Amino acid sequence: MKKIVAIFLVVSFVAGSALASCSVITGSFEESAKEVTLISYDAFTPAEGIFDDFTAATGATVRVVTAGDTGSMVSKAILTSGNPEGDVMFGIDNTFLSRAQSGNVLLDYTPVDESDVCLNYDKAWFESRGITPPQTFEDLALPTYKGLLTAPDPVNSAPGFAFLVASIEHFGEGKWQNYWKQLKANGVRIASDWTAAYTIDFSGSSGKGKYPIVVSYGSSPAAEVLFSATPLTTAPTGVVTATCFKATEYVGVLRGSKNEELAQKLVDYLLAQKFQESMPTSLFVYPINTDAVLPDVFVKHAVRPTTSSTPSVEKIEKNRDQWIDTWRNIFL
């Protein structure tokens, strides 16, 4: 059965169609005042034709440029702060927010969506072997789950770093280091980013890899159902709700944008109901706009834990470098 591979087939079509309706002009900003450039992470896959209303209202096309994973995107934006490569940035999350703020990247930072980074598991893999899926962080260090987990590198991957922070919040300072040493000894695979972890390593996705546990999102089961080659009534993947981290993504006008007024109009459009309602089935995140209605597939199959780890952005920024350096030393 084809699973998440369908996402990439659909995404390729969607992205191609969406960008077909967006500007592909290669001239400078000065040469094309009616083009606004939206920078986001690689997994930004807006719904087909979603910017048509914006173009009709403003006469401006939207050019989408992707800039790697969240960490890479923010790092590039800091380097070009005040002289940006675009007009609007979408997708700085709360694990990188303070870094972007200290780098003076955006004029303002407005929440645009929410999600939960959680462990996912392949139901069929565990059922076929008569093994109970993990239920806690601690379970991952047990011999039963040796060599079963793949996680994105926390250095540049937002979900990878979110999972690291969630484990730190769970075990506490002075104890989380030993936990990651145990995970290393238990054969955790560190993938380059979320895409590699989920679509290549994970056995429950299109890549049909050898790892039945992956760091992903509480909404991933809904994606599996939506893009399944055959209709499904239940999701083929599960979520370990005790391991979740609440992520909030932000949007804003890039400082130094040459199209600041138009850029702000695009930000307003991204926060309005139509775009917000498109996000659950295109970006698989929860809208921040309370008027937005969730689609049935999201209501039925996305998992939203009652509690998630939510450390302050100040705590994250204060400890980020120390946490990353310590993690790197463990995995050297």
Automatic annotation (TrEMBL):
A biological-process GO annotation: thiamine transport
Single GO term (MF): thiamine binding
Key words, A-Z: Signal
A Pfam family: SBP_bac_1
GO cellular component, one term: outer membrane-bounded periplasmic space
Gene3D superfamilies: Periplasmic binding protein-like II
Transmembrane segments: none
The protein's name: Unannotated protein
Organism: freshwater metagenome
Lineage: unclassified sequences, metagenomes, ecological metagenomes
